[in-house]
Amino acid sequence: MAHFQKPAEGSWTEHFGLDTEPVNYEDSTSPAHYELERDAIFGRTWLNVGRVEQLPRKGSYFTRELDAARTSVVVVRGTDDEVRAFHNMCRHRGNKLVWNDFPREETAGICRQFTCKYHGWRYDLEGQLTFVQQEGEFFDLDKSEFGLASVQCEVWEGFIFVNLDPSNTTPVRDYLGEIGKSIEGYPFHLMTQVHRYRAEVGSNWKLFIDAFAEFYHAPVLHAKQAVDEESRKLQGFGYEALAYDVDGPHSMVSSWGGMSPPKDESMVKPIERVLRSGLFGVWDAPDIGLDELPPGVNPARHKSWGTDSFVFFPNFMVLIWKPNWYLTYHYWPTSYNTHIFEGTLYFVPPKTAYERLQQELAVVTFKEYALQDGNTLEATQSMLESGAVNRFPLNDQEVLLRQLHTTAGRYVREYEEQQSTTPVRISAAS
Amino acid sequence: MTTFPADFADLEPFADWAVPTERARYEKRLSCTMDELQAFYDAVFPRLEAGTEYLKNVQLDGISEEDTRLVWLFSSLVTVSFPVEVWAQPRVPDSGASEFNAVMEPAI
Questions:
Q1: Phi, psi of A305, deg, nearest 5
Q2: What is the pTM of this model?
């Protein structure tokens, strides 16, 4: 029996115009398909690479390895305070420009200029080539032609995005669409206390998004994280979302959450009762100066609301929690069946040692859940690759999975069509 | 000099649990038996309520070394609460060899 209202069509899936047939997951087990995704998706869409707080001063920089998009970028705050991004590559002979000790590891810091380790070429913070070692040995070298190769870079609500496709001129705000606009104004900038976790996961990148884009699994996989009686009750209810939304390639799910604080404290673990904190965050929410949440946060304006998960295609999720904190997830593919997962928690900075301890419990609880989620994925990937079964039914609470795989498939198809029609156009024109 | 503030001198036997980072606390948890984790929990959990009352009056700005170590100790209790209250084993069940490491955490 439904506890929460569904759309008139009778299901969220049909409401969003998605089909209801079983899916085959071949898009998650094929090396060839992944190679197409690299160019069709990661080489062409806006990718979130960090937040402006990571670049506090002029000259602050960080690098991002974008293996899926076949490059590394360096993101830097210029002397004019603009945030820019460049391919992380010296224009002389292609050495990676910014790295320490291990060329494939990311780094961050602050500098006045970038100097290549190889032959000492220097670039200013705006990417202009300013110094060439033994410049007179070169042949009519015009330094203005050899600045760093720039990458489109835009900031939305403090989140820094890059786009590696120069022909994609859609601004990031337009790309994020109505779902992005609907959460503008949320005070992300106040939540600067950051904990980041990173894991190498043995599954296709989309499978981990699947895991975090549905809560159908929560009462079962995470049963032990509630006390026994509560856990049985939760499994009996199952899971239903308060609301879903889909706009273009992006989507969101709004969920109930009675845990911050719980109605009945005997529901939760002893340490949660004392520290007044847990998976849903610190029960005593800090003041963030909002009279009303942006319209896209708790869009149903439901009194039982707990958290919203926004899935920004392709690999970026934002989770906003009722007690005034947020989480981001990033999924960085490294092959068809591996990816690096990053989960980052953002809180209003604690003032007292007690508040710091409350946040610690929320952080560690997140880690315990994520460890359960991550290992399940490797188990899923290995069996999908067996190819023994290729029809998997998805239910209506898994609508965002269908949306993700459908969208990713469409990007690949459109890219293939474009690739196959391009040569025809050229020959017709000549 | 004692490890913890005077009110918490009784926790001195557990000074080796005053570990500064989450990653190191988790590694210490994995290196312990359930008996060791249970003994730590049984001794420190009953002091948590007094601890929270005390730490409510401790500002992070300019925190003393003794108070810092007390926060680290109770942070270890947070880490150890999962095996004791939930899992009945040091490692998250079915987490195999998977790792999920803190790569950025605010210092206390």
A1: -60, 140
A2: 0.94
